[in-house]
Amino acid sequence: MSKQDFDELQKIIEINSWTKNKEGVDQNGEIFAYWVQELGFTLSRYPREEIGDHLHLISSHREGKKLLLLGHLDTVFPPNTFENFKEDNEWIYGPGVCDMKGGNYVALQALRAAHKKFGEIHNIDFLLVSDEETGSDDSKHLSAKLAKDYDYCMVFEAAGLHDEVVVGRKGVGTFFIDIEGIAAHAGNHYSDGADANLEAAHKLTQLVALTDLEKQTTVNVGKISGGIGANTISPKAHLTFELRYTNTDERDRVLKAVDKIVAHSHVEGTESTLSGGIQRDVMQPSPEQQIFIDHINTLCNVQLPTEKRGGVSDANVVSSQGVATLDGWGPYGDGDHTIHERASKKSFVERIKLVTEIFEHFLEGKI
C-alpha cells in the first residue's frame, strides 16, 4: 500500500467525527461520498438535524444479485480527546483507524480497483450511517428498510485477530423499570408506606435469574436508584438493565418473563412500568450466509476464518432482515474505543486484496 494511500486515510482520521459532532461527521461523510461518487455512484442523502446525515451511495443497477456495503461515519471520541494520526512500520494509529474509517477505506480501495478493471460498478451500493456508536437508534430503521433490497451485505467493522469475519453477534436490548411506591415516615408510619426500593430488589434478583450462561444469554441490571433518605419509605425506584442473547428463542423467553416480572408486585401498593426495548436484534448464522462464505472460499481460493462476537454492530440490523451478512471486513486492529486505537498496515493490504477479488467475482456474476 502506497504512502499516498495512508495520506488520504489520514485526512479523514484527523476530522473529529464524534457521534454528537454533526459538523465533523458530515465533513467526513462529504469527503468519503466524493471519493465514491468519482466511481460513478449517485448519492441519496438522508438529512438529520442533530446527528450526521446518513448517506446511501448507489451504483448502476441491472438484473442480478445486489450487494450492500455497510459502514458508519462516527467515532466515540469527543473533540480534543483523541484526534491525531501517526504511523510506524507496522501500524497506523488514530481515532477510527479500525473502527471504522479504516474499514470504510478498505471498501473504497477495493471499489476503486474493481472500477479500474471493469470501467464501472453495478449492483454494489454503500450505506454510511452516522450514529452506530450510540446504538444506531435513528439509522437502524433506515438500514432495516433498505436491507430488503439486497441479497448480500458486507460490513466493514474490524477483522478478527487472525483475519476472521464475523458470522454471529448477540442481540442487545436496554430496558428501564420505573417503580412507584408510597412515601411514609420510617419511624412513625412505617406500615403506611409501600417500599419502591424493596420492590426493586425483588425485581433485580428475578431479572438476573433469567441469565443462562450455557446459552450465552445474559441479563445485567447495571444501574439501580431510588429513595429519599434513611428515615423515609422509598416512593420511587428505577432499574436499568441490559439483555444480550444469541438466538431469537432466548430473546422471546426473556421478554415474556420480563413482562411478568414487571406486572407482578411483591410489595403491596407498588406499581411498575417497563420502557426501552431491543436496540439491535441478533445476528445468527444462516444457510444463505454459509453459501456466501462457500462462494468466497471457492472463487478466491481461501479458507475464510469465522468467529462470533458478543458485541453488536449494524450487521445485526441487516442480518435480522434475512440478508446473508458477513461482518469484519475492515483491517485488523486493537485498542478501539481507547486513545491507543491502531490498525495493522499488513492487514490493510490483505483485506483490500481479498475484498477486491470478491467484488470482481460479484461483478462477473459468480456470486
Which ranges are low-confidence, i.e. pLDDT below 50, for 5 or more consecutive residues?
none
Number of domains: 2
Fourth CATH level, the homologous superfamily of the largest domain: Zn peptidases
Quote the beta fraction.
15-25%
Write the CATH fold name of the largest domain: Aminopeptidase
State the distance separating the first and last CA atoms: 27 Å
Mean pLDDT: 96
The largest beta-sheet arranges its strands as 1-2-6-3-7-16
Question: Can I get a quick summary?
Answer:
By secondary structure, this protein is α+β, with helices and mostly antiparallel strands. It has helices at 3-13, 22-37, 101-118, 139-147, 196-208, 248-263, 287-300, 314-319, 345-363, and strands spanning 42-46, 54-58, 67-72, 86-87, 91-93, 124-129, 152-155, 165-169, 171-180, 184-185, 218-226, 232-233, 236-245, 271-280, 306-309, 324-326, 333-334, 342-344.
